[in-house]
Amino acid sequence: MAGTTLTWNINASGFEATQRHLERLAHLDQAPLLARIGEYVRRTTQERFRTQTDHEGKPWQKLSEITKARKQKNRDKILTERGYLRQSINWQLLPGGKAVAIGTPMIYGAVQQFGAKKHTLGPRTPWGDIPARPFLGLSEADKTHILALVQRHLQPI
Question: Other CB atoms closer than 10 Å to residue 98's CB: what's the count?
Answer without folding.
Answer: 10
